[in-house]
Design a protein that fits this description.
Elements lengths: L2 H24 L28 E5 L5 H21 L4 H19 L9 E6 L2 E3 L7 E8 L8 E9 L6 H11 L7 E8 L4 E7 L1
Parallel strand pairs: 1-7, 5-6
Antiparallel strand pairs: 2-3, 2-4, 4-5, 6-7
Helix pairs in contact: 1-2, 1-3, 2-3
Length: about 200
């Protein structure tokens, strides 16, 4: 096996182990959003929609192996969070998905994201105080390096319920971060129906 293939395989295995450790650290199993005892649950006590766990219905790759590998890691995180949260809907459910996903992703300390590249606010191409009026918030970013000066390679936005990543939102994110259209803005969307849950991923 070529050396670079072996290195990439090892990186993916390490990322998988970090995901598992993140959930132990986050302790998300104790937080339930709209828990209902009449819902069908799996052996771990998580809501299974009556017939299974979270289903990934669509994944649109960017063609960039590094970005697509990171998307896969984030998908795994969000899926696990949604399963552990169990039943729930509305704004409260969405808030819990964001809070617990952010906590788990920070604990992974992923290259190019670290602990600080999660839930940040930007304005005029620079970082500002989180939630500052007029700023744009991002859920996760990937940089080509560890410092705040490293170029931004991709942005992920987590949506739940009926919320969608609009073209205007994408434009606002790119303007606030001062990046071009070569930087993909990737939507991780969790949509829950009556008996199934799904995660939809797309990039713009």
């Amino acid at each position: 096996m070529p050396q670079h293939d072996a290195s990439q395989t090892l990186d993916l295995e390490i990322a998988a182990l970090r995901v598992q450790l993140a959930f132990l650290y986050a302790g998300v199993e104790g937080i339930k959003a709209g828990f209902r005892h009449d819902q069908s649950r799996d052996a771990r006590g998580r809501w299974d929609g009556g017939r299974g766990t979270v289903i990934v219905t669509r994944v649109e790759a960017t063609g960039n192996a590094r970005i697509d590998a990171r998307t896969k890691t984030l998908v795994d995180v969000v899926k696990e969070i949604v399963e552990d949260l169990g039943g729930g809907s509305g704004a409260g459910f969405g808030i819990q998905v964001h809070l617990q996903s952010a906590r788990a992703i920070r604990s992974l300390d992923l290259p190019g994201t670290g602990r600080h590249g999660v839930e940040q606010s930007f304005s005029g191409g620079g970082l500002v105080r989180y939630g500052l009026d007029g700023s744009v918030r991002t859920d996760v970013i990937l940089r080509d390096g560890r410092t705040e000066l490293a170029p931004i390679l991709a942005v992920w936005d987590i949506k739940t319920g009926r919320a969608r990543l609009s073209a205007k939102r994408v434009a606002d994110i790119r303007a606030a971060l001062n990046v071009g259209k070569d930087v993909p803005v990737i939507e991780i969307h969790v949509e829950r129906g009556v008996s199934v849950k799904s995660a939809v991923f797309r990039w713009m």
